C-alpha cells in the first residue's frame, strides 16, 4: 500500500488500467448480486431525501414499490446503503434498453438536480474501507473485464478514468498529484 496524503491506497489502484464500457457490461455495477446496495455517506441521506421527488420520475414501478415499502436506504450512521430489489438492482436503477442506468445521474444530466450520484457509485470500482485506517482498494468484478481491456488498449489508468470522482472527493490539487503519482508508478513498472 501507499500512503498518499492521509489515505492508504492499495497498489492496484495506482497501476491498473480501466475505462468503463457500458455497451459491454450493461451497467453491471448497479445490478450485481449482493446483500446491500451502494454505500452512502451520512451527508448524502438528506441530499437524496431532498431530490427524491425529482428522481422518482425516472424510476420504474417495481423500484417505487420497494421504496414505498422499505425506503430507499438502510443501515445506520456511518453504515448506510441504498436498498436493493431482490438482492440485485439498486432501487435507483432504470433501464435504457439492456443497459442499467442511475436515475439520480439521469436527473443530474437533465439538469434537474445538482447532485450527480453517491460518491461510492462515482468512484466505482474503487471502494473505500475505514478500518483500521481509511484506505482505497480496487474491487475487481468479472463484469468489468471489458473495461480493463478498454483501459489497456487506450493506456488509461484507473485513476485517470475516475479523475472527476476523485476530484469531487478530494479536490483538484490532490487528484492532480495522485494521477501524476500513478503515471510515475506506471512508468517505473515498465523499467
Give a verbal description of the structure.
By secondary structure, this protein is α+β, with helices and mostly antiparallel strands. The chain has two domains: 1-18 and 126-191, no CATH class; 26-124, no CATH class. Helices cover 44% and strands 19% of the residues. The protein is built from ten helices and eleven strands. The chain has helices at 11-15, 22-25, 44-55, 61-70, 103-109, 119-123, 145-154, 158-161, 163-170, 172-190; strands at residues 2-4, 7-9, 39-40, 73-76, 79-82, 84-85, 89-90, 93-96, 99-102, 126-129, 135-138. The strands form four sheets. Strands 1-2-11-10 form a four-stranded mixed beta sheet. Strands 3-5-4 form a three-stranded antiparallel beta sheet. A hairpin with a 5-residue loop joins strand 10 and strand 11. Helix 3 (44-55) crosses helix 5 (103-109) and helix 9 crosses helix 10 (172-190). The longest helix is centred in the last third of the chain and has 19 residues, at 172-190. It is globular and about 50 Å long. The protein starts with a strand and ends with a helix. The mean pLDDT is 92.
